[in-house]
Amino acid sequence: MQFLCFPTTFLLIILIPSLLFLLFIKNYRRIQNNKFPPGPWKLPFIGSIHQLNTGEQTHWKFYRLAQKYGPLFHIKLGQVNFVVASSPSTAHEVLSTHDIFLASRPKLLAVETVGYNSGGIGFSPYGPYWRQLRKICTLELLSNKKVKSLGSIRYEEAHNVLYKLRTMAGSPVNMTEVFQTVSNLLITRTAFGMECRSRQRFISAMTEAIALLPMLRVADLFPSFSHLISFFDGSNFQMKRLRREMDHVLDEIIAEHREKPVVAAEGMEEDLVDILLRIQAKGELQVPLTMDNVKAVILDMLVAATESTSITLCWIMSELIRHPEVMFKAQTEAREAFRAKKKVEAIDMDDLYYLRNVIKETLRLHPPLPLLLPRICTEPIKLSGFVIPTGTRVIVNVWAIARDSKIWENPESFCPERFNESSIDFKGTNYEFLPFGSGRRICPGITFAMAGIELIIALLLLNFDWELPGGKDLMDLDMEEDFDGTAKRKNDLYLIATPNSHGTLKNFI
Prior knowledge:
It is a single chain. With 509 residues, the protein is of the alpha+beta class. Helix content is 51%, strand content 8%. The chain has 20 helices and eleven strands. It has a four-stranded mixed beta sheet with strand order 1-2-7-4. It has a three-stranded antiparallel beta sheet with strand order 3-11-8. A two-stranded antiparallel ribbon has the order 5-6. Strand 5 (381-383) and strand 6 form a beta hairpin. Helix 8 (151-167) runs parallel beside helix 20 (446-463), helix 9 (175-192) runs antiparallel to helix 16 and helix 16 (291-322) runs parallel beside helix 20 (446-463). The longest helix has 32 residues, at 291-322. It starts with 5 loop residues before the first helix and ends in a 10-residue tail after the last strand.
């Protein structure tokens, strides 16, 4: 065996450690460049689930973690890595800069099982099918023209609310139930039309389905064991039963619509089901709509619209009753705007500037979705200097952003005047105020939701004076939240409505 000469041996002794050192530095930098943002410490298997088991609502806890670890932090819950954005700049990165790589949703067991394999617009993966659904929503289902054409339904249901409140004048009324009922009727009439024998069955099944949709269900945090967990906690049987019930009800509703005369020929207004069936029958779509797709879109839109509308109405009245000076200003504006009106028209709502600020301020303090629906990385991306790997779920905490004292003066105070002379809106371009999200996945139903909310609140302020039952002090009103994906009042809101001489109730009856 021939040995290496001394100079060669010496060079290798020098070069090999140097090469190994350079490789170490390269790998170290790669590891450093791919590490997650800072976050709470983890335990084996469960990750940081223990961090959330503190009695606080999840969005509150994420807010406190952001204060400790920064506006972009990492938390591992079970088997799933989450990155949470809690500032306008990090929200902009998530919802605009890297929107295309974060436009898909993670698979959630309840949505897969009850929601027809995530076939609705809310949770379907980003791609040709989702883009097609978005186009249908924008041009057909929820266009400005369509929302305007639904004005008669909004007025009829608002009339029913006013009539009920007048019959209960002087007695405590559960306004939470009132708002849930009117929201359900608004959206189901929009979707199914006036005559629908199965409406109440659908509402009952939908209400039960909503309870299965919290974002951080244990089964979804352990994807490898999700079916096993759902089997042992009983939710698997409940989801399958609801799917069968929902499927049966939707089949009945679709059959009713197919038996109707052609709406165009009769001069009737198309409802949501009519539109979807018409589009499906044409067969001109890039991705054909199956009947399960149609059902998924119906279910998805109704769940989202019903829950968010009723929650927002309830928080608006809660804040108004706690702030009589704001209530007085909003009532005065409505009564002056409609003083000489025999009937309130949609165009009249444009004059209610202060009421619109009240709604904005309520959405700032009480966004229905304090944590926007999770997105999933489809490619590695860089957020705030950290490389976020594929498969990470990314969440924007809009509740935390709306309470950032660097952005909002006295952020905990209810002050509609902060929007006076302000260009800040909820259309998704102001990242300090994102109650409906932003980017490709922004809520497509903003116009529809706001039309109903503005009308109902305006007519309640116009026709009635309001007080708490039992002469309670206004600031004693319980404002505790309950978070299960949406942030609603924990306890129902009871108010007393007293008719006044300013209202136009007689014109609705």
